Amino acid sequence: MNTKEIENKKIAVLLSGGVDSSVVVYEFAKLGLHPDCFYIKIGPEETEEWDCSSEEDLEMATAVAHKYGCKLEVIDCHQEYWNQVTKYTMDKVKAGLTPNPDVMCNRLIKFGAFDEKRGHDYDLIATGHYAQTETDAEGFKWLCTSPDPVKDQTDFLAQIADWQLKKALFPIGHYVKDEVRIIAEREHLVNAKRKDSQGICFLGKINYNDYIRRYLGEQPGDVIELETGKRIGEHKGLWFHTIGQRKGMGFGGGPWFVVKKDVAHNILYVSHGYDPETAYKQDFPVQAFHFLTRPLTPTEVTFKIRHTPEYHPATLEWTSSHSFIVHSKERIHGVAPGQFCVVYDAEHHHCFGSGEITI
Fold it and tell me: Of the listed 105, 144, 341, 351, which one is catalytic?
C-alpha cells in the first residue's frame, strides 16, 4: 500500500468478517490510521431457510473493528443484491449461459450500491481482495495481479467501472495468503484460523442447484449423445448443468461429459469418456469487452476463463472496438458461452478487462 496514495484521503474499509479484510484494518492501524469500517449485508431473503453464517461474519467484523478503534456501520444492500445480481444470474442461466455472480457482485454491490449509499462520502474504498493497482506515467490507474497465483482475484474485479477502479484500494494485494495468515495469528485476530469462504458469496451452505430450482423450477428434457444422436436419459433443466461438467449427472453407462446446450429445443448434449475431444476449444469469440482503464486493442495476451492459477497465452483478432476472437495457443477445456474471458498483458501483470464468451 502506497502511503502517498492514502495521504489526506478519507478511507472506507469493507469488512466482511473474514481474515483478509481484517488484516486490511491492521495494515491501516500500523500506520496509525483508524478508517471507518462497513459490513455489507447481502444475505438471503429468508434467514432460517438459507443458513448463511452472516451473524458470525458480523460478530467477527465487530470484534476486529473494536480491536483497532474503528467505527463499524452495517449497510443493508440486500434488496439491491437480489434485484440486480440475482436477476443477472437467473437471466443468464435461463438463456443456457454460464454466469459469474461474484464478478457482478463486485461491480454492482461492493463498488456500486455501497458507493451510492455511503461510499460516495469517501475518497477510497479498501477491500481484502488479492489484487494490486499501479498508476502509469500518464496518470492511468491499472488493475494488476497479486503475487499469489492461487488467490489472485483480478478476474473477479475485471468488470468494475473505471471510476470504481480509481477509488479501489487493495492493502493486502502484495501478500500471498500464507503471509496474511501469519499476520492474523501474530496479531491475535479473532478469525485468524477461520476457513476461507467457498462458492458464491451469499449462498453460504446452500447448494447452487437448490438456489436455481427456487427461482426457475424444473424443465425436463432429453439428454442426447452428441456423436451418435442416441437418447441416453432425461435432464431436469438445462440450468442445472454447465459446459464441461463431468460429475453429478446420474446418467447410466458413463462417464459422460456436457458439451452443448440447445436451449430452443431443451436438449442437453453430452459426449462419452473422461476427456473427449469435444470438451476442448482453441478459438472462440468474445463480445462486449469491458476495458478497465482505457480502450486498447492488444494482440499478444494471456487470459483466463475461470478462477484458476493458470494464464493461457493467445492472440486476439479484433472484429470491432469491443469484440474479438481468441486464438489460444493451447486447447482450452470447458469453454462455455456466458463465461467471462479475462484478458491480461503477455506477462499477466496488467489486467485489461473482460468480456463475455459467445461461441
Answer: 105
